[in-house]
Specification:
By secondary structure, this protein is of the alpha+beta class. Helices cover 48% and strands 6% of the residues. α2 runs antiparallel to α3.
Length: 391
Amino acid sequence: MANRKGRRRRFGAVRQYRSGSWTASYLGPDGERIRADETFETKKDAEIWLSQVEADISRGDWRAPDAGSVNFRLYAEKWVEERELAVRTEDLYKHLLRLHILPTFGTLDLDEITAPRVREWRAERLRTTKAKTTVAKAYRLVKGILETAVDDDLITRNPCRIKGAGKESAAERRIATVAQVDALADAIGIRWRLMVYLGAYGPMRPEELAGLRRRDVDPDDLVIRVRVAEPERTNGKRAPGETKSDAGVRAVVLPSFLHKEVKQHLAWFAEKEPDGLLFVGEKGAPFRRTSFGRKWRRARSVAGLPDGFRFYDLRHTGHTLATRSGATLKDTMVRAGQSSEKAALIYQHSDEERQRDLAAGLDDMVRAERAKHHKGNDHDPAHHNEKRTGS
């Protein structure tokens, strides 16, 4: 118990215990009296501590001593819940938290997560998983959560301070040739070959292809309206929503060599009602990433493409050929449904007429590449497939 030797100061108060040590206290901005969680050997030490607190308050740097006593797991789960995230991003964050982050930090309070603990956690994850990209994603997520905790005045500084730890080393961009795209289309099976061509020459994302309906396709003018994206979540359920970028609904004009492919697919495989899905499985079920993935891996092997070549990489073929045929960055961004705030300020709208010019140039490029590959013999995969199937 403190005796009466203490006296009140302009800010806060110091008192001496019978043991000879000193204590200090002050009224916080919220009006609550806060006592130092330590004792001081001298009165001067106690007064210096109060002066530092007073300076923090005047600078706006003060926070309640128990502000960081918030469980990281609860804060992180609420952090994810409060954000407007694409469903695949939400699934990714929950996956990273469950497998890589919460086992280490889940029982700690925010103010118990220190820079050394973050370094030790990252080193352990790299050593155990050998997955640099995954660890970089997990590190960025922890850093983002704790940055919000700083903004919320729960901690004074973000302990994630490892330079470059959140960066992913970009893999070399793989580009399939026209002949390899044709080989993929032939190997994937007649039901899915149009999906390969739309992925390359649309170019459309898998989740956009999954959401295409019969009414979105104009087979005569060769125009496809990309209206929605239907990504598949980790639980296997589809999550219809807007397309990935702010570009929103867009019209994709296809090169004319796909005319027969489109009409054939509509006649044989697409659901018959106007709102019917363009791509469905053999038993009439919607496109599934898992089952298609098995077909994709087999086709990729047949086409002689490396194991790391993804369906998404088909877009690079379309981008490359379009650029060679004279497309500007603005044209390819509009065609691929790419946008950003910066791009919106710099680039004007690329209208449908311009997209028709782009599709014509793309058609010329593909036909020329096919002719070169087949030594002057025009390659028509749809016709080849009809003869092969006896249709």
